[in-house]
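Recall that a protein's primary structure is simply its ordered list of amino acids. Everything else, from secondary elements to tertiary packing, is in principle encoded there. The following example makes that idea concrete.
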Amino acid sequence: MAIEVNATPRGTQGKGAARRLRHAGKVPGVLYGADKGAEHIELEHQELALNLKHEAFHASILTLNLAGEKQQVLLRDIQMHPWRTQVMHVDFQRVAKDKKIRIKVPLHFVHAEIAPGVKTGGGSVNHVMTEIDITCLPGDLPEFIEVDLAHLEMGHSIHLSELTLPKGVESVQLRSGDDAVVATIPVPRAEVEAEVEAAAAAAPVEGAAAAPGAAPAPEQKAPEKEEKERKSERVDRR
């Protein structure tokens, strides 16, 4: 999905200038990276707000049209107003075709309705992750990564190592040795509690009567009684 963003150079800087831009329906921003100096830019708030609603806008190579010069960029940071739906500031990073980028991409979960743990087990899928951190060249960047739940059983999980990543894409977390859980279908709490209660009922109860035909347990004597019996035996031997 090709997305183009329009921007113009921003001549004035400072809090006062940024405040005036926002009152005029614009958003101050910064463009940096690719071994070039930072540039102060401004964008139309309405256009930017509409783009922010699209998932691909957050994890795709964007085309930034800056005063007629088109550059390949990534959206790197957004600052929102504390309580209004207003974008306060935005950062874009230039990308170079031959340099790897690091970015978070969303996960799309498919076939949950036919997963055995859902269809026959009556469980529900717990999405432990909704995005993953990856590295790749700009040309290999996927819009999302698919997680196939078709064979997920009750009480089982899908880990990072089980995902099918596109060619040239690498998981940052997995590379560091962390094969984290992506999704799971947990056993319902009611079933776990029922199993615990059943196990407790089957366990022998202290003080319960012995089964018919079982050998009686040896008599346990109190320490005082044992000591008296030993003294009596010594007297008898004399």
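The first strand starts at residue 4 and ends at 9. Residues 102-190 form a domain with the RNA Polymerase Alpha Subunit; Chain A, domain 2 fold (CATH 2.170.120.20).
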